[in-house]
Amino acid sequence: xxxxxxxxxxxxxxxxxxxxxxxxxxxxxxxxxxxxxxxxxxxxxxxxxxxxxxxxxxxxxxxxxxxxxxxxxxxxxxxxxxxxxxxxxxxxxxxxxxxxxxxxxxxxxxxxxxxxxxxxxxxxxxxxxxxxxxxxxxxxxxxxxxxxxxxxxxxxxxxxxxxxxxxxxxxxxxxxxxxxxxxxxxxxxxxxxxxxxxxxxxxxxxxxxxxxxxxxxxxxxxxxxxxxxxxxxxxxxxxxxxxxxxxxxxxxxxxxxxxxxxxxxxxxxxxxxxxxxxxxxxxxxxxxxxxxxxxxxxxxxxxxxxxxxxxxxxxxxxxxxxxxxxxxxxxxxxxxxxxxxxxxxxxxxxxxxxxxxxxxxxxxxxxxxxxxxxxxxxxxxxxxxxxxxxxxxxxxxxxxxxxxxxxxxxxxxxxxxxxxxxxxxxxxxxxxxxxxxxxxxxxxxxxxxxxxxxxxxxxxxxxxxxxxxxxxxxxxxxxxxxxxxxxxxxxxxxxxxxxxxxxxxxxxx
Length: 509
What we know:
47% of the residues lie in helices and 13% in strands. The protein is α/β, with parallel strands linked by helices.
């Protein structure tokens, strides 16, 4: 990270002094700079002359005194408060009185670092994201002690480097990590409770939420020890159960299974083995599908079947010959009536898939009189490639397997889970969106800053506020209330701002 920040500054035309703890570490830093800029040359992003100019702007040293003439010093040592305080005490001693001192902490309190110096008004957080030369977001953090001029100077510098600064107050995790790690931690808890498998959760969040990678792949990439450190820092301040580290995560860290850097974490990284791919159910001829219901969801299901070349029926005669009946009614009362008629028409052994906003299928299953033939179904995006399928305690295991195979023959990636509110995607996505709504409601950051943090800092395709407006505050509140009713975790209660907008029928922007 230190080498990446030095490269960013030097690319911006600034003279940089890089300090390391010893000569060996300094040479590693030099190697990082040379290899990073060298890759840019190979890709045609830099000329060799530009690379030499960038490297020529960076002076490397092991002597803190060489920082004496710097206007800004950025600390990027490991996330240990004692270590950072030691570094800042030395910076306070050698740097000019008017120099701004910045910490690149991703989760620790900037105030805790600032108060150990003789210049707390000039201490700023400046959180670059990894890899710093590539990622556009920089969180700029001011404490209650920081003078506005120091924050403004750093934000202007960041903007001049071609980055997007998000200026916020000093809260553990800031915007991006506070939102991201609540979601990652919940995914670990979901795995630990047996709600769904690792592969199904990762596949669901990629195919159903449009994320570049699933939560377990991402945690392994970040490093499970780093994940644990960030969660502990946020939980120490917030006491929010969403940031109380999952016992499974803690166990993996204790065992030294830290992810990619140790060869094993949630996944095992064997270079001789092919990379894991999202599982897709076996193909075959498209099934005959009965679609029960009227409205946008039923139309979307029918269109999905048409794309797969499946014959679609909705009359009693059609339903009698179907392999799969999908209930896709918008209104719960209408769904029960239509489903009752469909079940009477269906032949024995027909798989019956029921949909609902809260994801629980057991009540509908019991009402059919044939609960062993019923599975829950959720299409996060009916035009997309993911089908979430839940089996209830009454579902025959063979029926669940046949349902997954039939959905796979419709060209869908099937993610299987237990019969719980929200299936996988909404059970992970909606609490994360609720956290963003709570952050917005508290005035910690505005909608643009929150969305920029997650798109530019975490690689999300859209920001959480934009996502809430796309999904609709009313639907978000309905799913969150179902999750809260099931788990009784206070963190899952819809944020007041979200409830207010749902009641008014207004988007958050």
